[in-house]
Design a protein that fits this description.
CATH architecture of the largest domain: Alpha-Beta Complex
Largest sheet: 6 strands, mixed
Oligomer: single chain
Enzyme class: lyase
Structural class: alpha/beta
Main location: cytoplasm
CATH topology of the largest domain: 2-enoyl-CoA Hydratase, Chain A, domain 1
Shape: globular
Subcellular location: Cytoplasm, Cytosol
CATH class of the largest domain: Alpha Beta
Number of domains: 2
Helix content: 40-55%
CATH superfamily of the largest domain: 2-enoyl-CoA Hydratase, Chain A, domain 1
Order of helices and strands: HHEEHEHHEEHEEHHEHEHHHH
Protein name: Ethylmalonyl-CoA decarboxylase
Number of strands: 9
GO molecular function, one term: methyl/ethyl malonyl-CoA decarboxylase activity
Bound molecules: ligand LP2KCY5N
Length: about 300
């Protein structure tokens, strides 16, 4: 009997995996058919070292992803870009996960690409490969079935500003700042930050922020819908406060929270008709499930 249950469970997992691939929840944007040579870009980035990206998965289903490169204000070196991709792969496999907090250690969220790394790959071909690699990674971050929050302490600059837009929410501590400085570097965002910024604040606001390379303090970010809250806490307790902030959204059964986030990903990324059909498919994964049956038996009132 347990053997049959195992078989049924494996079959169910297999069906779900195929369905999730169909809903494009874990899909990268670029592969070899787009001229993307992943192994070559990985080999180059591996030579450009410094800093680390650490992942801590909590028993409450909320993980913390820490960006750390203390001598360079948490700039992302080549090896950190690789580590970030590995951590996202890890999170894609974490079936108990419900939430994610992305933060920078010490006093900065992230100062963008490590200028030493950027200089070493400043030719057109390497730049394009790095851009595709980072777009793949940040798109996979955005598509995770986890409710994600960027905790912005200090500055989120250049690629750091782009990174924070790949999260569902942004919380900013007092005195922090988001700034797309690309214009001053003679470039435009390439990690998907412009497209995501337009989705968040609309094309007019995005044009102002990008073409003016404006400093965006918490109040401004909140007023245009870029940020979702300000945290008052000192550096050492901001993570705790972010954990509290995310809890109402992640409370409850993991499969329901994850299904909810999958709906948002589908709704955001597909045309309406396509999205509403996928909503039906995702609905079918939780209908009549343990959380649903429990709620029905409890007959909870919401008054
Ligand atoms: C393709 C990637 C591209 C993108 O898509 O946007 C990028 O992200 S390019 C990088 C864009 N970012 C920058 O240009 C940041 C430049 N740095 C700064 O503006 C400032 O350093 C800061 C981040 C605002 C911090 O200022 P402050 O608090 O005054 O500290 P310091 O300036 O003294 O910095 C300490 C130390 O850190 C080094 N640093 C900072 N950022 C980077 C970086 N991105 N790459 C490498 N190193 C960085 C800085 O040079 C200092 O080093 P030392 O001079 O050796 O002390």
């Amino acid at each position: 009997m347990p053997y049959i249950t195992d078989m049924a469970l494996n079959l169910w997992r297999c069906v779900m995996k195929r369905a999730e691939a169909r809903w494009c929840l874990y899909r990268s944007l670029y592969n070899s058919s787009h001229g993307f040579n992943e192994s070559e870009v990985k080999r180059k980035l591996a030579e450009l070292s410094g800093g680390s990206v650490k992942l801590c998965k909590g028993e409450n289903g909320i993980a913390e992803l820490g960006i750390s490169n203390s001598s360079r204000k948490n700039a992302l070196s080549g090896t950190m870009m690789l580590e970030l991709e590995e951590r996202i792969s890890d999170l894609e496999k974490w079936k108990e996960g419900k939430g994610l907090i992305v933060y920078g250690t010490e006093d900065t969220f992230c100062s963008g690409g490590d200028l030493n790394t950027i200089k070493a790959i400043s030719n057109a071909k390497d730049g394009l490969m790095m851009c595709m690699f980072m777009q793949n990674t940040l798109t996979r971050l955005q598509r995770l079935p986890l409710i994600s929050v960027a905790l912005i302490q200090g500055k989120a600059i250049g690629g750091g500003a782009e990174l924070c837009t790949a999260c569902d929410f942004r919380l900013m501590t007092e005195g922090s700042e988001i700034r797309f400085v690309h214009k001053h570097m003679g470039i435009v965002p390439g990690w998907g930050g412009a497209s995501r910024l337009i989705q968040l604040v609309g094309s007019r606001q995005a044009l102002k922020l990008l073409s003016g390379a404006l400093r965006i303090p918490p109040e401004h970010a909140i007023s245009i819908g870029l940020a979702d809250g300000t945290l008052s806490s000192a550096a050492d307790s901001a993570l705790e406060e972010a954990q509290k902030w995310i809890t109402p959204y992640t409370k409850g059964a993991a499969n329901v929270t994850r299904a909810m986030k999958k709906l948002i990903v589908c709704g955001r990324e597909h045309l309406f008709e396509d999205a509403i059909r996928k909503e039906k498919d995702i609905f079918a994964t939780v209908w009549g499930g343990p959380s649903n049956l429990q709620a029905l038996s409890e007959r909870t009132k919401y008054n």
